[in-house]
Amino acid sequence: MKLYSYFRSSAAYRVRIALNLKGIEVEQVGVHLVKEGGRQNTPEYRAHNPQGLVPALELDDGTVITQSLAIIDYLEAIRPEPRLVPADPVLAAKARAVALTIACDIHPLNNLRVLNYLKGPLGHSQQEADEWYRHWILEGGLDAVEALIEGGRFCFGDSPSVADICLIPQVFNARRFKIDISHLKKIEAVDRHCKELPAFLDAHPRRQPDTEI
């Protein structure tokens, strides 16, 4: 299998964590989202993912799966253990809710193409774009996630779930943009624990073959 990825993409980061937790090895293919106008916009890459986004997972038969949560669902189906969705139906729903809050409510508003549109065609300054990013990271975002998770070592229960897989990359991005999240005590505790685990450590942007950190 091939994973089309970009070291700094939080969506690709999620999939890298999931692959590591499942013990599945893939070939990584870097898709730089900035150089040469964004290599995700080339016809070659658009043939893999018409949206021009990362990640995309290409299976051995050439089938391509897009969208990080869909890829994670696929990995859960082909290798059920260790579970990424809790067995308990209530915890499963809560874990999915946190994952969707991050992947569907926070991340799309702060995606690179959105920030570029704000600064380009809409003419907003870098400062205004940064304020936009800060607002949507916290307002109804990580502030809400803090209230939703149980906390402790992981978001829910005694093992990492899809909630943690989505949370850790979003925390990385928040810190990269120098957003103060010190008031989010449960999130910080989960982040401290997860980033010590090999599956999360090895998925970190600075450990990727295409890293520029």
Quaternary structure of the protein: single chain
N-C termini distance: 26 Å
- On the 0 to 100 scale, the average pLDDT is 95
Poorly predicted regions are none
Question: Could you characterize what this model shows?
Answer:
It is a single chain. The protein is an alpha+beta fold and 213 residues long. It has two domains: 2-82, Glutaredoxin; 89-199, Up-down Bundle (Glutathione S-transferase Yfyf (Class Pi), Chain A, domain 2). It has nine helices and four strands; from the N terminus they run βαβαββααααααα. It has helices spanning 10-22, 43-46, 68-78, 89-106, 112-119, 126-148, 162-176, 185-194, 198-201, and strands at 2-5, 27-30, 56-58, 64-66. A four-stranded mixed sheet has the order 2-1-3-4, with helices on one face. The longest helix has 23 residues, at 126-148. It is globular. 35% of the residues are buried.
Summarize the entry for a quick read:
This protein is of the alpha+beta class and 213 residues long. It has 9 helices and 4 strands; from the N terminus they run βαβαββααααααα.
